[in-house]
């Protein structure tokens, strides 16, 4: 009996989930749900079907875990509680500031329906959060630092694209090596936004656009760029396509802490990711937690969970005996 | 109400646990139990007392969690099941091959007594094991690599000390940078023991000992050195004391894996530790899991657990609400 998975929303993340399921023999993709006309959506998995989202309630008893692949801004705040009234669900809600509110909404829906909802699964929030928690619990007298990149920030790329005269753009967030080194030295430096990350932009202009004016507009954009050292490169559409079509990302969670009766010893705990494909890695984390959702449900649990609430063994296809013998 | 901790065995690890308790305001050290004459054991915590291990049963209702700080070779296989009949316990049993057997023994004792026993807590087994599990669950199509060091191997240092003519010795395990780089490149190399680690030995000779013969004996010692490139330095007792009295350690768990419909994307997940004091870091992990043991016990759970079985939130002094708001 395989774990039957549904996907709601078939963009980069939905396709990533589909690929991740293929690597996990205890799971199968049953159906993809879309707001588009299903006839126009072609998926990779031959054995699965594409349905319109309006038919999703018909699948209540045919899907074990529904993976929600919409965006955090407007899709998930509505979809996750709604779907948790019918399905065990996993989402990757990543608006950090609104997690407590989202948790409560999903928890209320899932408690009422007796379903499991796991929210904010991915790498940040997700694997990075786990590493912040573990390291801070082990080294309470310390400080942690999160660096992102080198990688593509969708939000910053979009912000540039909204500028008049910009045809297309890609923005890379780049951690500053000297800041990483200072943190790794155990000196617990105070670091501003500008100290930690550079922003590098590759911009394709509309014909006749004023490059100098656009560069100035990018560099002074509040919240997005004004607090950072930003470089802007103007390139052709062909170059953008050729050199910047990937979606790499990654980053570092580093905690340095002291132990000893007089805090005489320093320890550095570092977790890092180097990802060729941000959405595919996020999807891979989601699928491991889909397994956990299924197992928690089998135990009769319900309500909203995060990565903090789930024992690691639930993620692995191996039995507890195998895990102890092979991985401990 | 603080969590009342007892320590059984007051060597490097026991002292490390004592220091870790000082950093966690929700815990207090109540008593240290020793096989030595308690009058000869002086501890750092003014408010705690030293007792002989033969009196430990009198403390059944006065200690919430007993930390077992004996060795894995002969102490813990006996002590952990025995103590689990009276106390919630945490140990750092690290003989990987015997973990399944140790688990069963502790589980039987703890199930009978209704206590919690958490075994094999530290960094390997422990934090490294967690990272092997998480990374392999997320990237099933991949391979993981564990490197140790640079750090002092107690077992290898002891092996040198047993050679006739050796007065004292310290052995460092050193990961080979080119092997680390090959793994980080995502090429999934096949690596022998010799490819992964160097062994560097600092040896103090007895007067009149034959250096050449001892060097040969070290380098050809089966299991310990024969399968590695080993360098031997003969130094004075003063130099050993001055330059090699610390107990640093650390290492790397790296998993590289592929995702995508045709495995076209590579991801590198890396966890590393750089520790000034191996026993103090191990103790710090143990104390976080002592908090988990206490909370699991309050929920009425019993039996043997490992780091795989415990949701991360149990380790932190923060509430679930605080964790979601601050760390997710």
Molecular structure report:
The structure is a homodimer of 328-residue chains. Chain A is of the alpha/beta class and 328 residues long. Chain A starts with a strand and ends with a helix. In chain A, a hairpin with a 5-residue loop joins strand 12 (249-259) and strand 13. Chain A has a 7-stranded parallel beta sheet with strand order 3-2-1-4-5-6-14, with helices on both faces. Chain A is 34% helix and 27% strand. Chain A is globular and about 60 Å long. In chain A, helix 1 packs across helix 10 (278-298) and helix 2 (75-84) packs parallel to helix 3 (99-113). Chain A has 11 helices and 14 strands. Chain A has helices at residues 12-22, 75-84, 99-113, 127-138, 154-161, 177-184, 193-196, 211-219, 237-243, 278-298, 320-326; strands at residues 3-8, 27-34, 49-52, 65-68, 88-91, 116-118, 142-148, 151-152, 166-175, 197-205, 229-234, 249-259, 265-275, 303-305. The model of chain A has no long low-confidence stretch (mean pLDDT 97). Chains A and B meet through helix 1, helix 3, helix 4, strand 13 and helix 10 of A and helix 1, helix 3, helix 4, strand 13 and helix 10 of B. Strand 13 of chain A pairs antiparallel with strand 13 of chain B, so a sheet runs across the interface.
